[in-house]
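Q: What structure does this chain adopt?
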Amino acid sequence: MNLMRTAMLLAAMTALFMGVGYLIGGTGGMTIAFLVAAGMNLFSYWNSDKMVLRMHHAVEIDERNAPELFEIVRGLSQNAGLPMPKVYLIQNDQPNAFATGRNPQNAAVAATTGLLERLSYEEVAGVMAHELAHIQNRDTLTMTITATLAGAISMLGNFAFFFGGNRDNNNPLGFVGVLVAMIVAPLAAALVQMAVSRTREYSADRRGAEICGNPDWLASALGKIAAAAQRIHNPDAERAPATAHMFIINPLSGERMDSLFSTHPATENRIAALRQMAVEFQAQPAPQPQARAKTRQAPGREEPTTSRPEPSAGPWGAPPADIPQAPKSNPWGRNPTGPRKGNWS
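A:
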């Protein structure tokens, strides 16, 4: 099913690319666009994840320079039965995250520093579980290819203004065709992104709640991220809007009236679905977590029990109240850029 969906996406994007080429340069432009699209499809399959990470200036981290985030992702990966993905950090005040990669064996998750500053351990676990669900559902290949090709289609539409309308290019519609390429192509690319993204978010929310073991963690995180995204600028996302559908919450919502072509379902609806899922969890005796993460515990930390009242401690463990804690450090390890305000110790 996922292979068929990816094939249909590639076919739709290729046809759209060829159509824009035809509007700009007639049959010759369509032929060139087909060759370019074929090359981009192949390139995107192998390299689109690296391109997206580079667009957002993501830096790979490990257990040495960001041990807490790394341990959260490792524990949740074990719960999900997934290979450990690469973990990246993005220096950005807006709390957000995304996953990328062509398959679970070549996957990565990325979180912003704003996410670590503003969310609790539990909420970060809910967000990372959501991104791992995308990897497990194999959404990431479709997401990254869509981001790459949608950006290329929008760029081609801009080129139409400069290279279209020439009488010698066999364009059957003349300047009208150029206007269609400039206006319709980016909108069509946005519609493809919307179709790909909306339904998969509900599925990833549900599976993510199962992976972390508590739907309320993700529901709480979504509310905080959505509120912050409305007021915190994300310059990298604004420069690469074709990648917006990859994030857990639309990073452009602070500046754009995009409800009509939104790549994400309404946050309120997602939270309501997770709250209902939490009620379902409580209505039946829950088994022990599938594979509660046996992550490394800091000295003096105890493994929490499943009967602990809310908020739960999550897969990373929690310090007893009577153990003195070290001073707070920045949430991502080395090279601090200033005081951090998140719930990280």
